[in-house]
From TrEMBL:
Signal peptide: none annotated. Gene3D superfamilies: Spore Coat Polysaccharide Biosynthesis Protein SpsA, Chain A. This is Nucleotidyl transferase domain-containing protein. It comes from Paenibacillus oryzisoli. It comes from the Bacteria.
Length: 253
């Protein structure tokens, strides 16, 4: 069975205070998105699609022909970004990883575990989650109280006080059944506080459309070390990520 990967790298990263696209800032001396491509190339991935936008020419100069490119001209949200890869992956059978281009510390073994979980369960999708002390700013994982199935992911700005108390968060990293992914994407709307098309809404859309049901339910893999997906949105966070990389090179390299 084939496997594909979509890397989200179109954001401007305005809080980095740099003209350089966020995903090109180096961690351990290598651009963030380049580290992810290194790990994916070591796996049996049929096609890697990089979704680019702001200064995409620089991302192309960095990655060259190692990946295929899709363009997101307008920043309308993560679901809209993934949809830009549709022409390259539509109607292909297999599994599709979706990773944010600013998570260079994620281990290859974690990506492999996520892919294996989706395949083993033949699930519509699997989300990588983490249990954190302070979930502020992250989307919360909503599970069915009886079955433990993931039934929704709620962004903080749209969450109720009760939902904000949940400390299981979305890392932004997924693995989908490829055909199920592109069946569900058109059902996502931008009726939320940000007015964006959230990829996280795919969980409830799949349930509503019967794409994830019965044995093909939406699953979750809980990350053991949240440092693998630490947010890198500011120069200070970039410095922290570099510090973590050099302190634990054998883990995050």
């Amino acid at each position: 069975m084939e496997a594909f990967a979509i890397l989200l790298g179109a954001g401007k990263g305005t809080r980095m205070k740099s003209e350089l696209p966020k995903v090109l800032h180096p961690v351990g001396g290598i651009p963030m998105i380049g580290r992810l491509v290194d790990k994916l190339e070591a796996m049996p991935i049929t096609r890697i699609v990089a979704v680019i936008g702001h200064r995409g020419d620089l991302v192309k100069s960095c990655l060259g022909t190692r990946v295929t490119y899709a363009h997101q001209e307008n920043q309308l949200g993560t679901a809209h970004a993934v949809l830009q890869a549709e022409r390259l992956l539509y109607n292909r059978s297999g599994s599709t990883l979706v990773l944010t281009g600013d998570t260079p510390l994620i281990r290859q073994s974690t990506i492999e575990r996520l892919l294996a979980a989706q395949r083993a369960q033949a699930s519509a999708g699997v989300v990588l989650t983490a249990i954190v002390k302070d979930p502020t700013g992250y989307g919360r994982i909503i599970r069915d109280a009886a079955s433990g199935e993931v039934v929704d992911i709620i962004e903080e700005k749209d969450a109720t006080p009760e939902q904000r108390a949940i400390n299981e968060i979305n890392t932004g990293i997924f693995c989908f059944d490829n055909e199920s992914l592109f069946q569900a994407l058109p059902g996502i709307t931008n009726h939320n506080a940000q007015g964006e098309y959230y990829l996280t809404d795919i969980v409830k859309v799949m349930r509503q459309r019967g794409i994830s049901s019965g044995e093909k339910r939406f699953e979750a893999i809980i990350l053991e070390d949240e440092a693998e997906v630490m947010g890198i949105n500011t120069p200070e966070q970039l410095e922290e990520a570099n510090r973590a990389f050099y302190e634990h090179m054998g883990i995050f390299a």
